[in-house]
Amino acid sequence: MEAATKISASNQSFGADDTPGQDSSAPLNRLPQVLDLTQAQNLRDTMAARLSDGSVVLDASAVERMSTPCAQVLLAAGRSAGFAGTSFQITNPSEVFRAALADLGLQAEFTNWMV
User: Which domains does the chain have, with CATH numbers?
Assistant: First the structure.
């Protein structure tokens, strides 16, 4: 029960926020502090929903931990957006977010999406 509460509470981090300077057609979606295995399915579902709505802009400034499964979900979402001809952006990537991508050898894959 406690784990479900934690996941539910961190789902709120995926909320939309209209932020100046972002693609006005896509609301800014804040990533949670912890993107670990317990968040991977929720992240996948959220990305699928956001991609079906159009452009995606993610704020990664709060990310303090990211696991391989969540990096894979973001990679798949970015590639799906590319295939669909939709915009996919990751703004304000935290140092932890960047380090996780570097540790996984994915920084080149994410270069075009990080602004």
Answer: 27-110 (3.30.750.24)
Instruction: Provide the H-helix boundaries in the chain.
Output: 2-11, 37-53, 68-84, 95-103, 107-110
Residue keyed to tokens 């800014």: 28
Radius of gyration of the chain (CA): 13
The DSSP 8-state label assigned to residue 114 in this structure reads B
Confirm if 58 and 91 have CB atoms less than 8 A apart.
yes
pLDDT at 28 (0 to 100):
82
Q: Which residues, at least 6 apart from 48, have a Cβ–Cβ distance to it below 8 Å?
A: 77
Asked whether 55 and 88 are in contact (CB, 8 A), the reply is: yes
Write out residues in the chain with pLDDT < 50, as ranges: 1-13, 16-24
